[in-house]
């Protein structure tokens, strides 16, 4: 039997950030699957089981707010916004679109574990 690894879907176009979090979270039994393209990330959400979505707001093709809204229409999976856009208006909008939490970049990866 044993413990099941927590699976996180990370939609983030900063590849350096993807690798940093992927390496860090692996030490704590979190498996991070990252996509720079939000459409690919949302498609994966329909195919595979994830425990959490970590979502950037500034994305190519589709704005992170739209991604959040679309995910929330189809799923009640927890969504954490991970964004450099830390102003209050963006935070309020993210929560209105269904986000469960908001981490303003830069942040320490350890904050995700809390």
Description:
Helix content is 37%, strand content 22%. It contains four helices and five strands, in the order βαβαβαβαβ. It has a five-stranded parallel sheet with strand order 2-1-3-4-5. Helix 4 links the parallel strand 4 and strand 5. The protein starts with 5 loop residues before the first strand and ends in a 10-residue tail after the last strand. 27% of the residues are buried. The mean pLDDT is 93.
Which features does this protein show?
globular; 37% helix; alpha/beta; five-stranded parallel β-sheet; 114 residues
- Residue-averaged pLDDT, rounded? 93
What does the radius of gyration come to?
A: 13 Å
Cα-to-Cα separation, first versus last residue: 26 Å
Helix content: 25-40%
- Main beta sheet: strand number and arrangement? 5 strands, parallel
Number of contiguous helices = 4
One letter per element, helices H and strands E, the order comes to: EHEHEHEHE
Unreliable runs: none
Chart the SSEs and their pairings.
Elements: E1 6-11, H1 15-26, E2 30-35, H2 38-47, E3 52-55, H3 64-74, E4 79-83, H4 88-96, E5 101-104
Parallel strand pairs: 1-2, 1-3, 3-4, 4-5
Précis, in short:
This protein is of the alpha/beta class and 114 residues long.
